[in-house]
Amino acid sequence: MITITIIVITCLVSFLAFSNEKLKEDLIFYPPAISKHKQWYRFVTCGFIHADIGHLVFNMFSLYVIGRHVEERFIEIFDTQGKILYIALYLTALVACLIPTYNKNKDNYYYRSLGASGAVSAVVFAFMFFYPTMGIGMMFIPVYIPGFIFGPIYLIISSILDKRGGGNINHSAHIWGAIYGVIFVIITCYFLSSYRPVTEFVEMVKAYISAHFS
Which domains does the chain have, with CATH numbers? Predict the structure, then answer.
């Protein structure tokens, strides 16, 4: 599966970077290196390195649990194009989620960012868009709520934390990655299939509300 391949590659590169500071610095998202030296590849390569084991495990576990289902759904909808589009979702999400960060920090020589969180957020939100009534929860916390409720809560909390600033987490990448995941699904389905995700999303949410609150 494509999901497993992404996880294996990410783990290998991340482990190499843990013990090789030069490799880490060559791959990390560093806006001035992009704006001054045109090292555009950093938008993508930063998603294959992580700060530590915990950071890596959290992202790859989330991708493993959710990504397999999104990959299968892409294949169901797009047939032979499904795998290519799933790869495109992941790789382009790495870029899209960091554009606001880049615009804000292109001359900030103290700013660096790394990790696959933005792309993973895109995959998770694509899943919630396909299956809005399925329960979603945080790792190791046995509380699950429907995706169509979890999604807005996640975005609101991430937005508050992003405005507050501080810490080492790029909440902006999480937000824009999540939004991008939904937009990618809508656009690709509209132009490349007969599946209409917005209509299906609304119908599933309406059916859930009717079944649980009527």
Answer: 2-213 (1.20.1540.10)
